[in-house]
Every structure is written in structure tokens, then in C-alpha cells.
User: Fold this.
Amino acid sequence: MNLPPKVTDRAFARLAEIAEDAGEARPLRVAVAGGGCSGFQYEITLDEPAEDDLVLEKDGQRVLVDPVSLPFLSNAVIDFSDELIGARFVIENPNAASSCGCGISFSM
Assistant:
């Protein structure tokens, strides 16, 4: 069954920090595009919502997923990782058959 992606509290909290630093709250867009070393790659950007986006919202922060990317992100978890190698939004995707070391690219 296709369930929408989940966004962790940590990811929403980081979005709130970004909004505070920038002085404006902009939604985080998580999209899937062709390309990358494994066939597909994630594109994570701050963007404005489109009419047909899925909007995941908590505490005034929003994460957007477009309808084309949605099937690729079914049951995925959108998280924020703050590790020694760097702080970034990460996607734990059960649909990905394999992924590459950069964590941005995957195959189905």
C-alpha cells in the first residue's frame, strides 16, 4: 500500500531554524528526478507550493512533494541528520533497491 512519506520532528525543527535565520518560512520541496549515479536522485530545495503538491505540515512548517515524485517516496522518511560529515536532510526510502555512497542517488 502506498503511504505518503513521513517527516520527522527533527526535520521540521531544522526547517523552523532555517526560517528563523532567513526571516521567512519557506516550504522544503523533496522531489525525485532522473539522473545521478544510480538512476534517480533526490532534489531537496526551498520552494513555493504548487497547486497539486502533497503538503506535509507541522507547527507551521511545510514539506512539499509533487505528484510525480510521490510514488517514489511512498513510505519514505524525510529526516535531518547532523553528523560529523555534515548536516543535511536525508531520505530513508524503503523503495530504493540500491543507493550510492552520497545518499542522494538511488535505483528502484
The chain is about 15% helix and 40% strand. The chain has one domain: 6-107. The helical segments are 9-22. Strands lie at 6-7, 28-34, 40-46, 54-58, 61-65, 77-83, 86-92, 98-99, 105-107.
